Amino acid sequence: MLDQSLFPNFITRSEIKLRLTAEEADIFAAEIKRHLPVYCYSPGRETTFVTTVYFDTDDFRFYSRANKFRDDNLKLRLKEYYYEVPEGYEVVPECWIEVKRRLGEATSKHRFRVAKVLVQRLFAGEDCFNEIYKSNRELAAEDVRKVFDTFLGVVRTYDLRPYSITNYRRRTFQAAGDESIRVTIDDLIAYFRAPALLYNGFAALTRGVLGEACGQQKHTVVEIKTTRERPAWMLALLDRFPQSHFSKFLTSTQALLRGVQGAAMPASDIVVRGADETPRPRLEGEGRRFLRRADV
Q: What is the mean pLDDT of the chain?
């Protein structure tokens, strides 16, 4: 089973990114494995598929801010985690909502688990705290309330809608029970236009239901997240690879808005498809659902 609940619902940490070729990513991963184990959310499964939905205003206020101030911005996103299995996809009835702020190299993230059936009500600004808490009972009620109020403050301030989606495959390296160093390696990154209504007739936002990709990222993206001083071995490794200001939020929006002034990345770094081209800890098994690819 997926168990993203092992990560805290509020965390502040340092975060840096790398944008690597496939060959460079293999070299980097081999070095990381010498120091950190592969973290499996479910035993034996070393990769997780992630769908991230980014929300913005009609005048793209969040995008414009993040594009102008790469180190001082706010994002609101929904994340869903799933596996590809021989039968199709393994999904759960819940997703995560996150409010992420960046200031310099530091990021803070408020997140909470939510039943997918509540998503539309939440983004309409409805206070569904009692229902939200049912999905987050491993935390104290006052802590969940604090995280939830942060979210409500954003959605009640801005008129938001789902705009862009990024879907990718993730490998995570982290010692069990140690939140201080976490490395993720993301590939197969593709960008999609978000539907106006999420989970409207679909149990999960797997790649199979997102339609044709608007663009695909050529590179592999590495994120290094730490809550303490980086060890010497990591500093030595980072000296071999240049850091990047890459943002999935910016590039997914740019894939949809190719004419936006001040684009997030050069056109040579993203493959854009034309319209006519075809290319809480839980019990084992609880909430798990297998979807055949023909069903999604």
A: 84
